[in-house]
Amino acid sequence: MKVGIPRSLMFHKLGYLWMKFLENLNIEYIISPNTNKEIMDKGKMLSTDETCIPFKIHMGHIEYLKDKCDVVLVPRFLGNEKESIECIKFNSIYDVVKNTFENINLVEYDIDYTTGNYELFEFISLGKKLGKKRLESLRAYRKAKKQYLKYNKERFETQEKILKTSKRKKILLLGHHYNLYDNLIGKPIVKILKKYDIEPIFSDIYTSKEDKSNLISETLYWKSNKEIINSLLYYKNKVDGVIIITAFPCGNDCLVNELIIRKNKDLPMINIVIDELNSETGLITRLESFIDIINERSNEYERNH
């Protein structure tokens, strides 16, 4: 059996865990390539107009994988914490994919705190669906989870070292993991920043479980947006500026990112909205202007001190 893993959405957060779990079970897998224009265009054709770009991209990755593996992994995520849920599209994506593609074999697991579907139990269930025994899947998950936590710890330690030792200007890239690392959404921004000798700091590389998101909003319940706010509060005094990366037309981000900007006026901040027609020239112009503002702010501080 060969499992197909789309390089989109939750892959950018949990992909390492999925790969290690499958490796520990000796199950072959294939990962779709970095997002390109062809994948994006196919995803657009398979989606409704109001669908946000990351989900259109996800559909394009499914299309790429459908004939290259035995099953495609499409998990559901409602939420793994009380009173904290993911965007509803993460819970519906399995059904959307199932009803969009004909003759496609999908395999899923379902994370939902309200029904007791916790990660451990769901990975054991996933292993069973892939033809593995319960004990074998349990061992594979526990080993994969240790590897995953170690991997994330090392990423955090590396970024902390950069913050402490790098002499370059540092800009926090604030957004969802599936935007930060996608080849058409976040990576062009990273490329431009590095060209101008800027050190990008990634908001998803954050390990604390302390929740301070109520400082921005006491009624916020989207888990991923809470994580973004908590990361901002941790990094804001360690960076020179913040770039919020928003994929059009995300309703959650339209609300939350506006609150973030209004309540953090002391820090240089820009909201970059990426849409299907995004121009690299326009992106370069906006980022150049923002970098100039940060440099001038730094020069003014040095003159006054």
How would you sum up this structure in a few lines?
By secondary structure, the protein is α/β, with parallel strands linked by helices. It is 50% helix and 14% strand.
What can you see in these coordinates?
By secondary structure, the chain is of the alpha/beta class. The protein has 2 domains: 2-146, Rossmann fold (3-Layer(aba) Sandwich), CATH 3.40.50; 166-304, Rossmann fold, CATH 3.40.50. 50% of the residues lie in helices and 14% in strands. It contains 11 helices and 10 strands. It has helices spanning 11-24, 37-45, 53-65, 89-100, 119-129, 134-165, 177-180, 187-195, 223-235, 251-262, 280-304; strands spanning 2-5, 28-31, 71-73, 76-79, 106-107, 110-112, 169-174, 198-202, 241-247, 269-274. The strands form 3 sheets. It has a 4-stranded parallel β-sheet, covered by helices on one side. The protein is globular and about 65 Å long. It starts with a strand and ends with a helix.
Rg (CA only): 20 Å
SS-based class: alpha/beta
Strand order of the largest sheet: 2-1-3-5
The number of E-state strands comes to 10
What's the CATH class label of the largest domain?
Alpha Beta
Question: Unreliable runs, pLDDT <50, ≥5 residues?
Answer: none
Order of secondary-structure elements: EHEHHEEHEEHHEHHEHEHEH
